[in-house]
Target: ABC transporter ATP-binding protein
Amino acid sequence: MKVVPSRSSEWVRPVTPQKPASAIIEIDHVSQVFQTSSRRDHLALSDISLTIEERAFVSILGPSGCGKSTLLYIVGGFVSPTSGAAKMKGKAITGPGPDRGPVFQEFALFPWKTVFGNVMYGPRQQGVRTAEAEAQSLALIEMVGLKGYENFYPKELSGGMKQRVALARTLAYHPEVLLMDEPFGALDAHTRTRLQNDLLNIWERDRKTVLFVTHSVDEAVFLSDKVVMMSKSPGRIRQVIDIDLPRPRRRSELLLDARYQEYVVDIERMFDESDEAGSPP
Ligand SMILES: Nc1ncnc2c1ncn2[C@@H]1O[C@H](COP(=O)(O)OP(=O)(O)OP(=O)(O)O)[C@@H](O)[C@H]1O
Model:
């Protein structure tokens, strides 16, 4: 199977009852220039336009330094684009908001709060009644596979467990969009596979829109409805690839699926072509 450029308007998610997906995030001719420490301009993103459909799982893939995180930060409202605009449900994104939940390595857990305390933080901030917040938090902790660890502190948890808490903490805000920046990048292969499976299980239950940055072709194909392949720096969109594989997906089954293998090989090839060093700032 040859990977062909997608025509996003034709894409309809198989949800029950079936209805055409509508755009939740629109990125419209976004460019980002950063000033380097030597006061030179560095073009990090160049004229990015992308529409993300409601409830889609979209991965952004590309060489190091091509601007993947910057794009996610713009959607999160943590960075204002130099030109162009990002919109959420038709409204310009002007800052962070509870409708977009970041799962970024930089937003570490509160070390002085337990697992339960970390997950409770969001509902408390949102003024949810204590009994309800507690019930929701306990359910989320169970959902991410950490039942029994409610009273542990972050320092007592493994890297994978901390990522699970970070996910539960973000889910507790009920964001419509999850923004995940290489959430499993630092984990060993086995833990990573388990968390990928768990994330898909949670996503299949909840069907939030996910924007997921990764360096891993295999991870992007396994998880996504669409893979956005970026060029080396300055980041541009090279191609958007629809991943037409059945759901629910199980890794053990997909590994035997010839179409999965073909997506991985085709995208790896494209990645290798992009993966020369980008222009330094
Ligand atoms: N706040 C900033 N100030 C100046 N330059 C920045 C800033 N943030 C990012 N950059 C630069 O913008 C470019 C894109 O960075 P970004 O982190 O978005 O890339 P990336 O694709 O996520 O990289 P990686 O895959 O290595 O994490 C890089 O050249 C980086 O040095």
About this structure: Residues 189-206 form the longest helix (18 residues). The chain has a mean pLDDT of 87. The pocket of adenosine-5'-triphosphate is lined by residues 34, 42, 44, 62, 64-70, 233, 281 (CB under 6 Å).
